[in-house]
């Protein structure tokens, strides 16, 4: 399975490098359309190679997706944390009750009760 993963990642790397080499022409990115830039009074433009724009868009989409999913799963992580605290509290209570029930007993009998 590990070799399949390495083969897939190698193929993906070769594919990305070939796409990058094929799309080295520069493109101009504008923050706002020219007509709206005249009304607003500012225009931000930047020239980048096309592969940087494409790969940057893919990377931004992946990051946005991860953050979105992390925020969406917050309620599940919070519930798991509450349940974990509750389990630890109950385990402490069970230990305390076992110790209380074994008071005054022989040590060997107390160890046998704890084992069961």
TrEMBL record:
Keywords annotated in UniProt: Cell membrane, Coiled coil, Membrane, Transmembrane, Transmembrane helix
InterPro entries per the UniProt record, alphabetical: LapA_dom
Coiled coil: 80-107
Transmembrane segments: 46-68
Keyword RNA-binding: no
Gene Ontology cellular component terms for the protein in this record: plasma membrane
Residue span, Lipopolysaccharide assembly protein A domain: 45-94
Name of protein: Lipopolysaccharide assembly protein A domain-containing protein
Organism: Falsiruegeria mediterranea M17
């Amino acid at each position: 399975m590990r070799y399949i993963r390495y083969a897939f990642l190698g193929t993906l790397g070769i594919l990305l490098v070939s796409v990058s080499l094929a799309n080295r022409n520069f493109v101009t990115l504008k923050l706002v359309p020219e007509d709206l830039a005249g009304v607003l009074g500012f225009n931000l433009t930047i020239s980048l190679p096309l592969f940087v724009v494409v790969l940057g868009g893919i990377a931004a989409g992946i990051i946005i997706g991860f953050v979105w999913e992390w925020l969406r799963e917050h309620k599940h992580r919070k519930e798991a944390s509450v349940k974990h605290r509750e389990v630890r509290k109950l385990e402490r209570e069970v230990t305390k009750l076992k110790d209380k029930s074994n008071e005054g007993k022989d040590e060997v009998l107390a160890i046998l009760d704890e084992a069961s």
